[in-house]
Amino acid sequence: MGSVRVEDVSKEYLLGRTLVPALRGVTLSVEPGEFMAVAGPSGSGKSTLLNLMGCLDHPTSGRVLIDGQDVAALGDDARSDLRAHKIGFIFQTFNLIPVLSALENVEFPLLMRRGRDHPRQRALGALDQVGLREFARHRPDELSGGQRQRVATARALVTNPAIVLADEPTANLDSTTGDAIVSLMLEINRRQGTTFIFSTHDPRVMAHAHRIVRLADGKVLDGA
Fold this sequence. Notes:
There is one protein chain. This protein is α/β, with parallel strands linked by helices. It contains 7 helices and 10 strands. It has one domain: Rossmann fold, CATH 3.40.50. The chain is globular, with a radius of gyration of 17 Å. The chain starts with a strand and ends with a strand.
């Protein structure tokens, strides 16, 4: 599968004594196998929307459905299980575990999934996909920003998730590495039908998107 539905979702954050709206009544459907870009200026709500789709946060109001399942109806364990089995997330700030090697960081989500055979070999294969096998034993502080982003990409892809959510995945990459990462994701999208949802300013990503959804001030302008 790999469908996502956001229904009249709003999200507010408390900043001191002020409620700050990040999303305002967003409704959006993503079909299985889409390669979709979410575009908009800084502060438009792109990252917030991806966090809600990835079950990393809860909406203030409205519903988020993954393959027709209302995420709010799930308990904590079921929601964690959903993330582990269906969703891969590529964070703009990498979120790698500093004391683990690149290989161990990629292997980590596999160890959270019971019944998964040969996690070390699968993790090495994922590092191969992003061209970093020779850096498998390096810790994050021994890698460049671009290399850390590639490790984060391998970690998101290693579980073969139905949905990959990527927050500015090429922002810290040079043009050659960025093109290679986009090409890899496109190949996985075409071969496996994986749903990809990006927040991005990168025209290379937007040029390949099946659809571009534009946000401004927490609202969808077009593309929904």
